[in-house]
Structure formats: structure tokens, C-alpha cells
Protein: RDD family protein
Amino acid sequence: MDILDSNPASAGGEIVDVDIASAGSRIAAYLLNTVFTVLVFIPLLYSIVLPLVEHWDEQHPEILSQITWNGPLVAGSLLLLLVYLVVQMWLMSKDGQSFGKRILKIRVLKSNGENPGFWGTVMLREVLFNVIVSIASMIIGYLITLVLKGGTETAELIGNALSQLLWIVCLVMLFNKTKNRRTLQDILADTVVVKLPKR
Structure:
């Protein structure tokens, strides 16, 4: 794929040939990010969720007020999560790379070769895409249940199924070389994921 080199050192906007990141490297980067996220959430789960689950009693909800929280552990867990999110967003804004993409030596670029920055990589490609998928799936789920005269649970089930279907569509799109392996996220943000050149 040919893109315009946005490097200020390049005089006259030189056209550079880049290789599109493979489906395997993109899937591996996603899985690595998932592992890192789960690891970061473990202290939070241990400090907040487990005490709630252990003391949960629908018959006697006042038992929840008797939980003894480990303040430093809760604060540390929330701080760790916040630092992780800020560093991920900073890396994605600065270099178009999450932790997983950095390890796999791939990055997100705009289709013209520029760095998408915070707005393109974080807000459009990640946040807005997930918001659109969630809202659209929920609305379609409720519309279908209105026609079928189903309940709220049916609407949520249909919405979740539609959401998962969109992720499957994105997975299939990763294997389409003729479209530069662009997923729905890439189309929304006008981005492409490329291999970093060997140094």
C-alpha cells in the first residue's frame, strides 16, 4: 500500500510503500491487550467485587453495610487501572499503538499516512465505534422485540447477538487483503494498520 509520508524530515511529501499488518498480528495484539486489561482488573476484582459477592444476601441487604473495605488496596487498584488507561491512550495517541500493537510492531495510521492522534485512534476508532455498536444493537434488539412482542430479556439477547455478530464481521474483514484488512473501526476512523519497518 502506498501512503504519503507525513514525517517532517521528508521533503515534498514523499510516497512510501508500507506493508499492511497481517490478520494474525492484529488478532495477537488484541489478545495481548485483553490479557493486560484482565491483569490490571484483578486487584480491583479482589478488592471490591469479591467482598460484595461474599456478603451479598438478597434477604438481608443491610449485610452489605458490614463489609470492611481495605482502603489502600481499593485506592491502589483504582489508581493502577487509571494509570493503565492513561498510558494506553497516550501511546495510541502518540504512536497509534496500544501495548499489544507495540509488542507486535504494528501501528495505526490514517489512510493518508498521518498519525490519527487522540481523536482518530482513541475517540473515533475505539470509543465512538463501541458506543455506536452498543446503541445500534440495543435499538435494533428492542425494535425486533416490539414486532415479535417479546420482553426486555429478549431485546437484550438480540442486542448482544447483534453486537457479537458485528465483531465477527470485523474478524472476517481482517482476512480481506483486497480492502487492506480494514475493519469497520478502520472505515469509521479512516485508518489502516501497518507493519513497522525493520530498523
Residues 4-12 have pLDDT under 50 and may be disordered.
